[in-house]
């Protein structure tokens, strides 16, 4: 395997807790709490916070407050607020709500595409085409997200060339950034590098993002491995919140606090204040009535408490 071993000097962390993290919660959280969370995260220094999803409220009830959340957050200059949109109906809502970036989300597995967005991969790309055109016309950033790129809960193995094919289709839509997602957290370091390098044959590696769930405890190792081959954008979720409603047993994204602790130790710049993220993690965990899943977050909180 060919790979560059120098780690990046700087990475971009996209905070996805308010969307990916909260979409799977059973208890509905108020818009007030979500607004508070998004504002805390933006103040901590993230340049990109995924704050909303304009999807069917029948499919994902937790995201039903997205319009209210986007309307009410106090915008921090320099922060991009993103929203997931599966179709034009979602796009119109995201535009009206003032999203800076829209995220079309597909999959590298036919079975997952059907379960998650009720259509085939080809149909999803056809739905994304008008969204992509409209995003460009309106001057919004366009991101593409590819679920199950490392394995599918229904289909199992996902061929590398299928990932490459979906990356190429997202590229042709005009995506500014493409997320390679380990929806069910099954990847390990070597596989991560193989998938990222295959994706990079279709799209510049500097614009690829690693979106790792931590189901098997491999997310930090996967991030390190992805950095070794040149990936420098990662998604994470404060307090390790999350899971996908259409991937049974999938746990949350890698915890942001753990990623920031790793980057700090490696001397890699993120522009994000770890202490403020720990506070945001304690806040949302308290609102949810449970302990944070972040190991670093809990350790820092325990140390503070003496
Ligand atoms: C895509 C659809 C809408 C298709 O669902 P459908 O039922 O095929 O859609 P439809 O066009 O036939 O419409 C049916 C109903 O949905 C409504 N509808 C239609 N579109 C919208 C919209 N945009 N916003 C609000 N409502 C909408 C539409 O108005 C209609 O309402 P009704 O007439 O029955 O009252 C549905 O399957 C859906 O909403 N799925 C959501 C899936 C989802 O949000 N999954 C979680 C996010 S993806 C994820 O977490 C993975 C990721 C990104 O994190 C990466 C990773 O880790 O893998």
UniProtKB/TrEMBL annotation:
Full protein name: hydroxymethylglutaryl-CoA lyase
Xref: InterPro entries: Aldolase_TIM, HMG_CoA_lyase_AS, HMGL, PYR_CT
Top-level taxon of the source organism: Bacteria
Family of the protein in this entry: Belongs to the HMG-CoA lyase family.
The enzyme's E.C. designation: 4.1.3.4
Species of origin: Massilia arenae
Positions of the Pyruvate carboxyltransferase domain: 11-278
Lyase among keywords: yes
Alphabetic keyword roster: Lyase, Metal-binding
Listed pathway(s): Metabolic intermediate metabolism; (S)-3-hydroxy-3-methylglutaryl-CoA degradation; acetoacetate from (S)-3-hydroxy-3-methylglutaryl-CoA: step 1/1
Class of the enzyme per the UniProt entry, highest EC level: lyase
PANTHER family in UniProt: HYDROXYMETHYLGLUTARYL-COA LYASE
PROSITE patterns cross-referenced by the UniProt entry: HMG_COA_LYASE, PYR_CT
GO molecular function, one term: metal ion binding
Record-linked Pfam families: HMGL-like
Magnesium listed as a keyword: no
Entry's Gene Ontology BP terms: ketone body biosynthetic process; L-leucine catabolic process
Catalytic reaction equation(s): (3S)-3-hydroxy-3-methylglutaryl-CoA = acetoacetate + acetyl-CoA
């Amino acid at each position: 395997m060919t790979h560059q071993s120098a780690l990046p000097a700087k990475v971009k962390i996209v905070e996805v807790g308010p969307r990916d993290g909260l979409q799977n919660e059973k208890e509905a959280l108020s818009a007030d709490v979500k607004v508070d969370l998004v504002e805390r995260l933006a103040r901590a220094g993230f340049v990109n916070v995924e704050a909303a999803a304009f999807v069917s409220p029948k499919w994902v009830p937790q995201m039903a407050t997205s319009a209210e959340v986007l309307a009410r957050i106090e915008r921090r200059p320099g922060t991009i607020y993103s929203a997931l949109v599966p179709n034009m109906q979602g796009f119109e809502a995201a535009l009206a709500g003032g999203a800076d970036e829209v995220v079309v989300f597909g999959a590298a597995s036919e079975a997952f595409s059907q379960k998650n967005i009720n259509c085939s991969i080809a149909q999803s790309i056809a739905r994304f085409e008008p969204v992509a055109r409209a995003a460009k016309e309106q001057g919004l950033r366009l991101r593409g997200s590819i679920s199950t790129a490392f394995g599918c809960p229904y289909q199992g193995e996902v061929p590398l060339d299928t990932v490459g094919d979906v990356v190429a289709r997202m590229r042709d839509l005009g995506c500014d950034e493409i997320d390679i997602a380990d929806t069910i957290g099954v990847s390990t370091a070597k596989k991560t590098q193989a998938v990222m390098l295959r994706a990079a044959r279709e799209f510049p590696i500097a614009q690829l993002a690693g979106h790792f769930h931590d189901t098997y405890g491999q997310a930090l190792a996967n991030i390190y491995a992805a950095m070794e081959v040149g990936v420098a954008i990662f998604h994470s979720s404060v307090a390790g919140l999350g899971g996908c409603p259409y991937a049974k047993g999938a746990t949350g994204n890698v915890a942001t606090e753990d990623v920031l602790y790793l980057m700090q130790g490696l001397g890699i710049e993120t522009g994000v204040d770890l202490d403020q993220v720990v506070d945001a993690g304690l806040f949302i965990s308290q609102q949810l009535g449970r302990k944070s899943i972040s190991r670093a977050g809990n350790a820092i909180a325990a140390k503070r408490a003496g």
